[in-house]
Description:
The protein is of the alpha+beta class. The protein has 3 helices and 8 strands.
Amino acid sequence: MDVGPRYDGGAGAAGGDGPGYGGGRGDGGGDDAEALLRARLRLADEQIETPPGLWDRIREPGTARAPAVVPLPRRRPRMVVLVVAAAVAAVALGVWWLVRPGPVSVQPAGPTPTVKITVYNSEQACRTGRSLECALRLANDPRAEYAARGNSAGRVWHGDALAARCVVTDGRMVRDEAGVTSTRWYLVTSGQGARGWLPGVRTRNTREVPECPAEVR
Length: 217
């Protein structure tokens, strides 16, 4: 910055009694230099331009938007995790208790249902007593000859109660002493445990008996 002419030589410099800075202040020269310096500083200050909007930004410091702070996820304490797991298990147990199936009990296979039938002998004289002459045969095979040797599974008498399991309707035809014929044969068990086939003509059954399955025929 220019502060005026310097007085470093010239007339009076050697003697130190002329105007300037060489021999001290004389005739008010120092006051003029100070006044000139102040004038130049004031002019420089006036020439400084303030950036547009500076004072507004200074007066409103709170208007600037603060940067967003994203909180870091906190680790769950182990106890909280255990409590949540226990609650989930309790809810699942409650749901299962509500929708659980009923108790399943395995029942042992019971005996096959049977129908009670009674032996009938068409001969009047054989309706009493239990002689061998009045005995009626239970057959092993309902399709074989009834009186064939070896086709005997046991003996029954008039009036015996038998447990009939099933019946076949296409067995060998049998005729009794009164001339009654039938192709029906009942798979029966006697009171003594004998198991065989009774011809339909040897009973007067009035109850429905189921037909025998294929594996029994």
